[in-house]
Amino acid sequence: MLHTSFKAINYCQKAFFILLLINILSCKNDSAHQNSTVQKERKFPQLFETLDSNYTNIHFQNQILENVEYNFINFYYIYNGGGVGIGDINNDGKPDLYLASITGPNKMYLNKGDFKFEDITEKSGLTAASGIKTGITMVDINNDGYLDIYQCRSGRDPQKRSNHLFINNKDLTFTDRSKEFGLNDQCPSSAATFFDFDKDGDLDLYLLNHPLSFDNAAEVNVAPDAKGQLTRINEPTDLFESDRLYKNNGNGTFTDISKLAGIINRSYGLSVTINDFNNDSYPDIYIGNDFVEPDIVYINNRNGTFTDKINDYFRHTSMHTMGVDIADVNNDGYNDLVSLDMNAEDNYRRKTLMTTMTVDKQTLLQKFGYGRQFMRNNLQLNSGSNTIPYSEIGCLTGISNTDWSWCCFIQDFDNDGKSDIFINNGYPRDVSNLDYVHFTMDSIIKSSGNSINLSADQLEQYLKRMGVTKVHDYMYKNMGNLQFEDVSMDWGLGMPNISNGAAYGDLDGDGDLDLIVNNQSEPLGVFKNNATKIYSDNKYLQIEFIGNNKNKSGIGASARFKIGDDIYYKELIPNRGYASSVEQILHFGLGNVNEIPLLEIKWADGKVQTMKNVKTNQKLKIDYNNAAVGKWIDFEKKIDRLVEENNQLGLNYYYRENEFSEFDREFLIPHKLSSLGPCIAVGDVNGDKLEDLYVGGANSNIGTLYFQTAEGKFNAVSQPGFQEDAMFEDVSALFFDADNDHDLDLLVVSGGNEYFKDSPNYNSRIYFNDGKGNFKMNFYSLLKVGYNGGVGAVNDFDSDGDLDVFIGCRSIAGKYPLAPNSYIFRNDGGKFVDVTAQVSSDFSKIGMVSDMKFADIDGDKKNELIVVGEWMPISILKFENGKYVNITKKMKLENTTGWWNCVQLADLDNDGDIDIIGGNEGLNTRLKVSESEPLEMYAKDFDNNGAIDPIITYYNLDKKWPLAQRDLITKQIPSLKKKTLYYRDYANARLEDLFSKSDLDASYHLDAKLFKTSWFENVNGTFIEHDLPIQSQFSPTYGITIYDINQDGFNDIVQVGNKWECEPETGQQDAGNGLILINEKNKNFKSVLSKYSGFVAPQNARTIALLHTSKRNIFVVGNNNATLQSFIIK
1102: exposed, middle or buried (C-beta count within 10 Å: 0-12, 13-18, 19+)? Predict the structure, then answer.
């Protein structure tokens, strides 16, 4: 076995070095310089009331007692325990509390009503004082009508980590019968969940475990396969490391069938959640894994076995997944998924506690099959189709950065009918403080002789030197339309703490959900929810299941109903979040709904029942005995698909990007500019009145011409001229008549960003057509271009009857973000002359151009030039007095600076003039911009070493900061190491602290104020921005086409795009599935989800083209490192 480390340095096999390797970040370092929360005026009333122990009689603290036997150094997961269980153990209708203490005694509290509790721990037999206690599960395992308790344990001593199964004796006492049931497992366990995986009616057990050794936790583990190729391995190294699946034998015993079921792994699992991912009515399993091992989606094969299919459902995941919840966030009837990671919210903690996520790390993970993992919270939106992957929109919703986060709940806490998101967090030691890691930890390691077995004095010294910082929990109120607002402070959850487990339940029976949060070494967090008082008009419905003799609680049962267009759906899966078990009811907030027309119930075995005209503001008890074999009503919309994918048309070109990474050359750039293909050109090139297609190739990959047949299919046509030019990378292409011989010639713009200025590989090419579709270059074919090309366009600017060529350039290789020259070539009878200097200095240095189009936007019968690009506004140049003049400000577009990728022009409002549609970065990014708080760029050779240093700044908590991490910016500018010796120095540094005023004043300054993909209405020659639906903002838009797809006389919009080439801290932007926007004729557009439209383009899409065929019109999507997709328009 080979362990490929992320770093060359070796700190022996210390657990704390693992933290350094894998970018773990903790609670913020003590600092008065920055606060994690900016105090703002209260917008919402306080929902939660904190109840102290004097009122509740709950005197519990989750203890962590570190000593030479157990401490963070020799057992890294010592801080990870502390689950919560909420359930009614005595059937009096009031949910009780079972609380896990990591190293101290657990506590059992009986609910006496009105938030008064009685400590019955001693007499109940539930002390469980020994071992490291982790996850709690409440379940009626023997089906006697009383809840039992399963307590997971971890630690190094096998005798102290046998899990407990406390059977309820029905008299407020419990007996540990784990051995009798065969569930006294000695694996180091994080959590457990009971579910009926084989649909035999009884509850089986999935036990989530982790290895005891953390030596290689942060390393890529590979070994040669049969062919000698290194491949990822994930085999357990001892009997205790793998997760376990226990089958319920139906006679009070369980059998370990893990190996037979295919549950063999070696992962540092922190959460296990049940969900039916493929909608086949069989429960599947989601495993959230820590360190480098990717998360797992075990799909139930319905034959007693499971197969990991994580990549079939998720394009990327969180990197160090902790808590997970799976529920519906947008009332579409499909479960979405939230997973938690450790990315900090504020600038100071992000820079002092987060080791830079590097390109090398991401490359290594992907090379050996560890998937795409990025360190931030994820919100994975369910597409509603098994064939369309989830869209990860955590950045768009604003929940991505909540510090070292553990437990999350998707639940309606204010009863307004929309599910909110709760997240708790914290870590007892600032173990990943980078100053501590680099400057203090090394000396401690050396003083201990590189041993993990420290003396008491050494341990005390070690722990004293680690900071302790508390961070508040987070609550996000669902505002609708996939928008969430941080109401942590408003709702009364703003007190800093350190917590792990949490659970919810209606503890006082008033119709809203209260919260219990297990804080470490502090009193329990008891939060009484006052929603039914504060929002008395908001209604609710609670459902309690009375199951059959094999599953008394009805675990796995679900309920659904429809109110207007909203579908409410929930499943009874008590174990969710982190290491905890919530009250075993379904809770629906309903807003002002007084009655549910039709309530549908589905039990775990598939039986169903319905209830009509159900009154709200009540708790319903649903009895399995009233269920029958049947099916739910089909709520899916019965609409004809707008398009149908058909990849049998012959357009099978695979665009294979050549290997090149600018990140190795330019450390501070936000994304690659060498992977922008493929491009597509459309036109009838052989005179048969059928549109043909050219698709451009990457460096060393030949572009291909396809002729259309009479049957509406396509054949690739060999073109020797293309083969001779395989060294070029095609970034833009269009057909036009270059020599006025009445056939279409081909203009191809070259790029790639690999080459430095004036490389011949950047020259644009014109291939002349012989009239039959055979293309060749001639003496006049090469247009000398000195920079990475972006786009080509044609227009007869001099009105001499032939088309002139405009080349917009994208970048100067190695000098991001300086503006390259763009070019105007006048057509002199088929010869092209560079007249840029004479015709337009405004165009020459207009910026990093990505796209441009010509159209008459002011009705003067002359075409204006509309140009978009990175760090640019949507720009308009008008031809006046023989020159193109920039009139962007006159058009009221000067504040539209963004990262524009494409532009289209069309009349969207049917008023007879041309409107603008711009494809932008979108809103699903960690980088947030506005007119008042833009992203800014300061570019200059600050250290006078001959290289441009691109310094991006961003706003965080109302202040402007350098964006880059210290390790990256000092790699680019080594002299900054002296100015910021410590990470805390850099974290507190403003731009003015790093660079002189004169240097900043002399720098090339740019900004981006708008990231939304938008359309701009032409109003008498000036433009007004209009929003597009939120789905348009899921990912960067690279391709737009306009077409009246529903034939109602109004133009609709079709867009595609994803961006997989971002720097690792931003991560892969891949939530786009392609989108059709229907024009509603009132200046608004309605998105048609892919599952309804049939338009599914989830790859790294770069362009879309409309082709008219002899049969039907089609859309063709060009994907980077993937095959073309063809969609027939119905």
Answer: buried
